[in-house]
């Protein structure tokens, strides 16, 4: 490590990102704003480039800053634990409570958890899945630290901030050999039992819009569910047609257990990202989580 880098440089850098502004970070570290600005400038001079971009909405990391930030978080956490151990007092392990919609739980969470535990082995992690409405309600109540999933309707996002990661669409899947595969036309789904998203599901308005675009209403024979476990078991053994976020069934389709109908579902495409309480300061664990999620999406 460059000998010019001091602990104060890393502490200031991490706190600026955690607080979202130099002013708030200076207050948290009991420094003046010119002092923390100077410390950041020194670190950027040592590392050879800008680490943060300032804007009206606060600060955001550059690519170089994202790379350094994850390592700085891990290093400071390890140092804190080591110093606490020397004093004979074990510091409490960081805790993180994440809500994940089913598509994200299947597509992203295994990799996110593996990376988190690699960077913070003592992290106490709790993961809940469920419907969008239930998870965002728990987030607003403080029972969850973050929710990762689809952007909901405006009324469901009150008091929350959203960081977009990627776009995802709804898939229409059936079992291999399903009769509809002979003529894969969505206007024929009414001939079969349909697994359809519930009224409170984030994808429900999008699927309704898709159906309306085809001149169709709600399927007359339907089971409303977003349960991946139920849908997966039921669709594989019945002549049902299942509307579900593509991420939920991506592995099933790739491994041939389910077949995606070759139909255009572009109208259902919507943003997936991380939801947090607007304006709430982030803990070390929450900051580390955001860092891991963003890095994984950038590397995909």
UniProtKB/TrEMBL annotation:
Swiss-Prot/TrEMBL keywords: DNA-binding, Transcription, Transcription regulation
Top-level taxonomic group: Bacteria
Gene Ontology terms, MF aspect: DNA binding; DNA-binding transcription factor activity
Keyword Ubl conjugation: no
InterPro entries assigned to the protein according to its UniProt record, in alphabetical order: HTH-type_LysR_regulators, LysR_HTH_N, LysR_subst-bd, TF_PcaQ, WH-like_DNA-bd_sf, WH_DNA-bd_sf
GO CC entries: cytosol
Record domain HTH lysR-type: where: 5-62
One Pfam family in the UniProt entry: LysR_substrate
Gene Ontology terms describing biological process: 3,4-dihydroxybenzoate catabolic process; positive regulation of DNA-templated transcription
Signal peptide: none
PANTHER family membership: HTH-TYPE TRANSCRIPTIONAL REGULATOR YBHD, NITROGEN ASSIMILATION TRANSCRIPTIONAL ACTIVATOR-RELATED
Membership in a protein family: Belongs to the LysR transcriptional regulatory family.
Protein name from the UniProt record: LysR family transcriptional regulator
């Amino acid at each position: 490590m460059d000998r010019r880098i001091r602990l104060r440089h890393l502490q200031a850098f991490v706190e600026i990102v955690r607080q979202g502004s130099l002013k708030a970070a200076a207050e948290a570290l009991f420094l003046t704003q010119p002092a923390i600005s100077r410390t950041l400038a020194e670190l950027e001079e040592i590392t050879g480039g800008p680490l943060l971009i300032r804007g009206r909405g606060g600060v955001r990391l550059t690519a170089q800053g994202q790379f350094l930030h994850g390592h700085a978080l891990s290093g400071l956490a390890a140092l804190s634990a080591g110093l606490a151990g020397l004093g004979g007092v074990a510091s409490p392990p960081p805790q993180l409570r994440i809500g994940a919609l089913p598509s994200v739980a299947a597509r992203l969470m295994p990799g996110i958890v593996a990376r988190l535990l690699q960077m913070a082995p003592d992290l106490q992690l709790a993961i809940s899945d469920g419907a969008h409405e239930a998870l965002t309600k728990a987030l607003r109540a403080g029972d969850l630290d973050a929710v990762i999933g689809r952007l909901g309707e405006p009324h469901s996002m009150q008091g929350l901030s959203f960081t977009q990661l990627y776009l995802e669409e709804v898939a229409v899947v059936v079992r291999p050999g399903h009769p509809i595969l002979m003529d894969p036309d969505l206007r024929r789904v009414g001939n079969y039992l349909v697994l359809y998203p519930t009224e409170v599901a984030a994808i429900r308005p999008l699927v309704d819009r898709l159906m309306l675009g085809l001149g169709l209403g709600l399927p007359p024979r339907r089971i409303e569910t977003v349960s991946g476990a139920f849908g997966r078991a039921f669709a594989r053994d019945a002549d049902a047609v299942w509307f579900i976020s593509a991420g939920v069934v991506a592995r099933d389709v790739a491994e041939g257990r389910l077949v995606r109908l070759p139909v255009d579902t572009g109208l259902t495409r919507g943003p997936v990202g991380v939801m947090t309480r607007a304006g709430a300061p982030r803990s070390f664990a929450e900051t580390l989580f955001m860092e891991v999620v963003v890095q994984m999406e950038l590397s995909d």
